[in-house]
C-alpha cells in the first residue's frame, strides 16, 4: 500500500514538473480568419446494432456527455469522429450533435452547433460471404470486408459549423486492394504462397471502413477533408495481413493527396480521379500508424507526413501525454518518439502509448496552432478526456497568401 501511494505521488510530481511547462489543456480560441480542424476517435461503438442509437436517444449517455465536453473545451469548427456507429436510419451523429454537443456539459462551457454532418456506409461488419481469416467459416467478424460484428460498427462522421457540399464529396468504400499499384499482398511464410486465395484477393476491399473526401465550404474558401481509419496493424498472424493492409490504406491517402493514380481512384459513384492540384485539404483520422513506435510499417506514415504536398508536420503536443507515459513507464520504456506527441493511452490493454491520430494540413494552408487535448491529472477536463482511449487532435490553419 505504501508503495502504491508513493507511486501516485511520484506520478503527480511528474505531471507538474516533468518538463511539461508551456502546455495548456483548454486551447485559446483561434484568432479571426483561422480554421480549427480536429480528429477524434471517440470509441463510441457498441456490441450490437442499434445499441448506440438507443443509448443516445435516452439523453443520458455518460460517455457522450464527456465526449461533448471535450469538444466544447477545444471548440473545433470541423471535426472527424472515428468509431461512432454508422446507422442510416437512426443517425447517431445527428443525435450526438443535437442532444449532447449542443448542450453545455460543464460549468462555464457553451454548447456547440454543428448543423452540417456527413456520414457514409463503411466496410466494417459488412458481410463478404468469403473466408477472409482462413478459419473455414464465412460468417465471423473477421470475414466482413472490415472487421466488425454488425454493419456500421466503428463508423465515422464529420461534424461541421460550415456547409458540406455533398455533391462534391466523394467516398471510396469499394476500392479493391488487388488493384492498388504495388499492393502489399500478404504471403504465408510457412508455404511462400499468397495468404488469400485468388478468388478472395480479387474481391477484397482495401479500406477497412471507407475513405472519404469531404468538401467543406469554409468562410476562407473550399476545403477538403481526407478522412480514413485504417485497420490496426495487429490481430493477425505471421503473414502480417493487417500490418500490410494498414500500410496500403495509409499509402492510399498519400497517393490521393498527391494527385496520383487517378485511374485507381474510382469513387462509389463511378467517378475517377484523385484530388486536384492546389486544392487545400487536411488529412484526418485514426491512422493506426506511429512514425516511430508500435507495430506498423512506419515508412507508410512517414511518407504521408513528409510528402511534398503536405505542410510541415505540426507535431501536436500535450502535457497529459507526457504524464501518462511516465505513469506507465514499464510499457513505454522502449519508446523512441517524443511522448508529448502521443495521442492514445492503450495501457488498459497492456500496450504502450502511441501517436496514431492525425490532423495534417496541405501546403496550401499555414499552421498557426495545434495540440492534443490531453489534460494533466487533476486539470479541468481530465475526466472528460478519459472517455476514449484516444485523445482529440486539433490544428489551426489559415490560407497561404498567393
TrEMBL record:
InterPro entries reported for this sequence: Endo/exonu/phosph_ase_sf (IPR036691), Endo/exonuclease/phosphatase (IPR005135), GPI-anchor_lipid_remodeler (IPR051916)
UniProt KW keywords: Endonuclease, Exonuclease, Hydrolase, Nuclease, Signal
User: Could you name the domain of life of the organism this protein comes from?
Assistant: Bacteria
Gene Ontology process terms (BP) = GPI anchor biosynthetic process
Q: Which residue ranges does the record assign to the Endonuclease/exonuclease/phosphatase domain?
A: 39-390
Q: Where is this region: Disordered?
A: 308-327
Renumbered to this chain, the Low complexity biased-composition regions fall at 318-327
- Pfam families recorded: Exo_endo_phos
Signal peptide span per the entry? 1-24
What molecular function terms (GO) are annotated for this protein? endonuclease activity; exonuclease activity
- One Gene Ontology cellular component: membrane
Q: What is this protein called in UniProt? A: Endonuclease/Exonuclease/phosphatase family protein
